[in-house]
Amino acid sequence: DPCTRSTIMNTTMPRFGWINAIVAVAAILGHGWLVCGFVPVTNQNPIRQALMATIDDTSVVSTRTRSCGEDRLKVVLVAGFESFNRDLYNMAASELGDAVDLTVFADSDLRSTITSDPEDLGTNPEFERAMQDADAFVGSLVFDYDDVAVVKSLLPSVKGPRLLFECATELMEFNQVGSFNMMKKDGDDASTGPPQAVKAILSKFSGNEEDKLAGYIKLLKTAPDMLAAVDKVVKNDKLRGLKSWLEAYRFWNQGGKSNVSAMLQVILDVINNDERELPQLIVTPDVGLLHPLLGKGSQYLESPAEYLAWRLSKSTQTLAKSAGFQLADNKKAPRVAILLYRKHVLTEQPYILQLITMMEAQGVLPVPVFINGVEAHTIVRDLLTSHREVASVSRGDIKRPSTYQAKKAVTVDAIVNTVGFPLVGGPSGSMEAGRNVDVAEALLRAMDVPYIVASPLLLQSIEQWKRNGVLGLQSVVLYGLPELDGAIDTVVLGGLVGDHIALVPERVRKLTSRIKSWVNLRRTPPSERRIAMALYGFPPNVGAVGTAALLDVPKSLEAILEGLHKEGYEIGEWMNDPDASGESLVAALAILCQDAVVSAGAGRANDALQAKMQRAREGDVSVAATLAREGGGLGGAAVRAIDVTIEETEQMLGKYMSRKVARQWSEKDPGPGATGLGKSFVSGLQIGNVFLFVQPLLGVVGDPMRLLFERDLTPHYQYISTYLKLQQPEEDGGFGIDGLVHVGMHGTSEWLPGKPLGNDRQSWSDVLLGQLPNLYIYAANNPSESILAKRRGYATLISHNVPPYGRSGLYLELANLKELVDDYRSAFVDGYGMDKDLLESICALADRNGMLNDVPFPEDGTDETANEWVSNLNVYLNTVSERLYSSGLHAFGSMPTDKELDSYLEAYFGDRLTEEQRRNAISTWHSSAGQMRSGGRNLLEQAITFVQGEEFWAPKSGVTDQASHIVSLLSRSTEELHSLVNGLNGGYIEAKAGGDLLRDGADVLPTGRNIHSLDPYRMPSASAWKRGQRAAEEIIRQHLTANGGNYPETVAVTLWGLDAIKTKGESVAIVLALVGAEPVKEGTGRIVRYDLVPLEKLGRPRIDVLCSLSGIFRDSFANIVDLLDDVFERAASADEPVGQNYVRKHVQELEEDGVERAAARLFSNPPGDYGSNVNEVVTAGDWEESESLGETWKGRNAFSYGRREGNVATAGTSRPEVLDKLLKTTERVVQEVDSVEYGLSDIQEYYANTGALKKAAENLKDIDPTTGKQKRVALSVIEAFGTSGDDCPVEVKDVEEVLRLEYRSKLLNPKWRDAMLSQGSGGAYEISQRMTAMIGWSATAQVDNFVFDQACERYALDEDVAKQLQRSNPEAFKNVVRRLLEAAGRGMWETDNDTLEKLKELYDNVDDVVEQGTARTMTTLT
After folding, report:
1. Does the pLDDT value for residue 767 go beyond 50?
2. The whole model's pTM is what?
3. Cβ of 1404: how many Cβ atoms within 10 Å?
4. Which helix (H) or strand (E) holds 146?
5. How many CB atoms lie within 10 A of CB 784?
6. Cβ neighbours of residue 806 under 8 Å, at least 6 residues apart?
7. Is the pLDDT of residue 930 over 80?
8. What is the DSSP-derived secondary structure letter of residue 1054?
9. Which helix (H) or strand (E) holds 1278?
């Protein structure tokens, strides 16, 4: 038999029927399912019967055969993710002489045009002609949906066999060789997975899921040989076709010119109905190790242990010396496992050996293991170990798996994965994100070494990357999927140049420098490690130094320092000083940031601090009270400051980037932070080996964030000097820092100009962070901005919990109003009828508190309507009372008190859990924790037990069990500090999805994790799609009601990264529902297109949508931007009446005016820029009329994005004419609020973006004749937090209603106020910020007068509160008073002259105190 002449593998298959095995493989392959297992075979076995039924199926799909005398065989080969193999395939074809005419297309060759016609795939005519003439087709690694659609449309035209290897499931079913094919049968699930019969078979297979893919690869090697033996017994055309397919696949999978040539011969034989002897399969092991000195890279070793023995041998040293090859130091160099893609080794991609060579030369000893991709986890598990893992095993903390091969394994200091994708499953597991994350985490946690992903780009050219950063699916492969496993420090090592993979040597140096820094951090004893901690002070002059969103920075500093002390770090006298205070540290750092201190320079910095401490002891209220303590409460911390010349900065920076800086800054204008002599003032506090500093401002006086909004600007000299001095060795005049910690959310280094994704040497965050390990403390509920820090700022994130929640309750006049309402309703129920005097009192009190805007009093004034109004007022008061707010700030690493635990449970469960049940849940946890403590288990052991599945509080079905589980997870917030310490030890930090408890449930806990985002190819989720549809329906319903039954022509929807991630795409779903479109999924569940819903089904006009993208959404969800752009183009060209399609209507109107790209609908900041600049303008008070804020927003958001803008979503084009048209027709703006912590009134971004957008639209409106003013644009707000189900109604409220609710429940609420006051300087700053935001909302929407009245009473005119604010944070208190005066001066607030005089006097006093303090400081310094 000709089959026996192929290479026979020495393999046995005990207890496994060959027929069953092969047909199982065929069935599984046909449906994209990859498994391996063994089952006993009997005639009665139902599995065997199902398999034999598949074999005996007599349906035949004929394929053309040829006689040997016909023309050359025309084969079309599409190399999807392997375009770099084009030359290899052509050379392989040439081995067959004139027998084969091979035409190779890369994925980028398949389409030549982008069209709005959904039926036009934009197919490249050359590819179409080739397919129509093809005698056979081979496709490999084709996954992109548009590419799949093109290939799928032309496959039926192929005359002969069609072979598809490792492609999208939609293509795999087109496999056909002779009678064998993989088409699904009737009754199969048409979307995903195998038919029921195969599912039954799969259920019988054994083995761990994560190992089945690796087993599958091994099984394929023997399949053709087994089939050859079966063919001798069972003559079956389908089996023969399957054998040919597997034979071809085996040759393709082994790769190399000879094997690929043999694959083509298999295809030739099928068409010619010939069975010639095939060349011998050249087998490369599935796993092996290589090195340039091993047979010039062509020799492979079997195990890491064998490789390392060779690598460390004297003979290798001698060989390297004779060859002029530089080896890393055997003893000192970090030993790093490098996971390489076997396909690239087989096809002799030069970059593989180049990478190894460069790493050796740069002082890293690589252990380069090539793999298919699916075995990555088995390498980590079975063949690698670490010093930490060895120690844990010896202590009995963990157990080795039975698969561990001690004699073949080696110890490594880090792992670098150059394949990308998930650790478990690799490319084959890539389409179901997070499926085996728990397996990967367990392996990496046991290793406890840095896990880094670094790879050349296989889907982009270097030129594309340099121009636009990492895009689309490439970003998912390199960033999104590996981050689920806890990967850090991703580096782009190179990319495609034509059809070849090329390295960028400078990027390899970046990788090795970061590896060495992480390993050095671990190897340096804690007592010798130098750590820097960065605090923030933006915006300036409002008390922001040492603050971070949701985090109590002073208390967190105390906890961190204590934790470091316990680990053996040198922190001076901090622990011995009973007066040491985090508040003192923050106050001292704030002093070092003052202009007078900066101007005087490093030599006078300590004098300035000592002078302030003396004034604090004298009772000066402008100085933090804690500085009056013995030693200033600084715990021995000393000022450390240096003045850095421009020349020195340029020497550290290098000539290339220095030239950029010199074009923006000079000796005459060096930027902020310059001394009187023009030097950069770099300062902070030194506590032992810990250096605390405040991150410099980015911009200039009056425009402190200027850098973020002008793309060509560079950081100024002080900013650059600070970060470079951290890294410079002490002997060279620097700080010699080993590791950096950014304390809280968030800094600015990750926002600096550069690539949106995929840093290069010109990205400022890459330059300034250099090789420093960067641990970044971040709120767990912000997986949006934190991803920017991770990807652009090389941050290993350490999440912290959000503060506890509180219910607003009713207070002061609101409590009195509720009593009156209850009295009125009781009297009515008791039969006393209406009490008009009481009703009048209720009305007056409601009016004074602005309630009549929310519950309007009926105009007719009948008894019945009055009673109904009182009932409605009662409902509203209950709504206010039940509103949640974030109470205070979280101290890093602190365990919640029982009261705080109860607040979390009450907020999460609501009335599903009684107070008694909540107490029981907490007491149950205390009891269980006590048992663990009595057993002698420490927190680390408890954590290990938990992740190994032995946790006492595993979740159960009952609500009380769920509560106990949540309590246990919340109580593990102490792990925040443990994770930070482990990160500073160079260890692995477990990954966790970012989110908050109220919306996402227990899955976001515990904190202390390296948080990640979601898979952008599954947005919107099924739940988000349902809610988004209902929200759109409600938005339209409300608009129809308010506008006489008229539909809005244009609705503006804000698309932010944060709410998109946390709601899993609800805002995207709202856009789709408004325009009349729906998501389309491919076989793996990825959303690959948004299709228009027919008008008949939609039942209303298509609403035009202006999509306002945040910079993070634009950069993080480029695929969504592309898909939305595509659906708007198709809506614009749809053959529908303009009266039923407002997108088309507006596009036609623009095109009539000669405007290009009239269908552009996705607008944001210029490429690489972030923010509207409106909040900076408001903070500085640098504006006149509110209309100017709308113009500021418009000027910053005129850039259109999408696939039709340079064919990449991040290549924006300024299109102000289109934006103006959309703004002019916008009748409503939509904003989602995704969490309790970040309400409209809590942060500046809402008014600065959504409010300013509203104002920009109103600026273009006609004058309303009834008011004499421009028509107002409604702003609809959707509060998308909480645990409401998919089928619950979606509430849509007007912005003014939401603002009133928020102000009543938070800013005006004494409970919220007192919680913030208890947080010291940070709490005072939070109050101050909300006063600034109130000005912003007054300018862009409307804030009721009662809000200003009561804010004035609560914070400025309450003497005790005013004193506490001033003492805690003088600048913050000054800002509170300033904003009230500003509101009155701008006509936003009407108040009496007496109140204004009191405020002016108060402001003059506090201003004098602050200014006198500054003056006294200057006097001291001079």
Report:
1. yes
2. 0.87
3. 11
4. helix 145-154
5. 21
6. 884, 885, 886, 887, 903, 1311, 1312, 1315
7. no
8. E
9. strand 1274-1279
